[in-house]
Design brief:
Helix content is 45%, strand content 0%. By secondary structure, it is mainly α. The N and C termini lie far apart (37 Å).
């Protein structure tokens, strides 16, 4: 195993974040994996809402909701705050 670098939990760099104390329901995490969406999409699925229903609640288009839910999308904090009210969760759980 020469040339390979082994990491232990103690040796990995870690920077504490503001959301470290936020718990996310298992079903939300599973929705992220199964549907390849970010937290925004996973919470929508968890709350049994369609993209069209969320679009109507927010005044946005269904295609805008779809783009925001892509796994590589990083919605702004203001957007996450707005959606956390719709999904009845803490904004810290949206990251």
């Amino acid at each position: 195993m020469s040339g390979e670098q082994r990491f232990t939990a103690e040796s990995l760099p870690y920077e504490q974040g503001d959301n470290d104390d936020a718990l996310i329901p298992h079903d939300v995490v599973m929705a992220m994996i199964k549907h390849n969406v970010n937290h925004l999409g996973a919470w929508r699925i968890y709350r049994n809402l369609s993209q069209q229903e969320v679009a109507e609640l927010t005044g946005l288009s269904q295609s805008a909701i779809s783009q925001m839910e892509r796994s590589d999308s990083r919605p702004q904090k203001k957007t996450l705050e707005r959606f956390s009210k719709i999904y009845d969760c803490d904004v810290k759980q949206m990251y």
